[in-house]
Amino acid sequence: MTARLLRRFLHVVFPMNCRTCDQALADDPVPFFCQRCWNRIEPIRSPSCSRCAHPFPSPHALAYSPEHLCGPCRKHPPAYHRAWTPYAYQSPLKEAIGLLKYRGKTHLAPALAHLIAQTHPAPSNVDVLIAVPLHPDRLREREYNQALLLAHHLGRQWNLPVLIDVLRRTKPTTPQTSLTRRERLKNLRRCFAVATPSVIEGKTTLLVDDVFTTGTTVNECAKALRKAGAEAVYVQTLARMRAHE
Fold this sequence. Notes:
Elements: H1 3-13, H2 35-38, H3 71-75, E1 82-84, E2 87-88, H4 93-102, H5 109-117, E3 128-131, H6 136-142, H7 146-158, E4 162-163, E5 167-169, H8 181-188, E6 192-194, H9 197-200, E7 204-212, H10 216-227, E8 232-240
């Protein structure tokens, strides 16, 4: 019996509703979601900053300057070379990330990684993937790192190695979404370190995380990687959340 047929059988025995539309699932090509809702996930189409991928409100923003940077990137250039975030943090992707991140539904990771891979071909100039790490206390509490799961499946799709336990979070931090910009910067300052610099020295690395809010987390990671000798640091996240002011 194939996995899909097995899920159909289980839905008959144990009825389940789609986490977005709440309609009963007869089939779920992606766990917990009906095909109709999953098909609503579409990439951001508007032009964006060539550094951090922040979407511009005008569809003509890059007509005369394709490499135009947003105000924050001009004022405070990030430590990473470029970031890609293909989707907005909205339903049903928002529910899917929440299930993966907070409810232990780790079998969503392959489908979420596939969403990234279908918008971004394997980066030819990248040597290794590195997931944004959790502090050991948070990792023990959650029992897995959702960013590492995404990196693992991306690595398989892109045929790129994933480095584990090279980049470390050295102190526990308050969740970024509850803080102001000033507090976010202070919260994450010098809380990442590279355990074995020789592993990344001279390499081009791609940082992987689930959600891009202000970019503070990935920027601090990039600082640590570049200080340890990385040749270049790029960033790949799944969804962009509207930043808190």
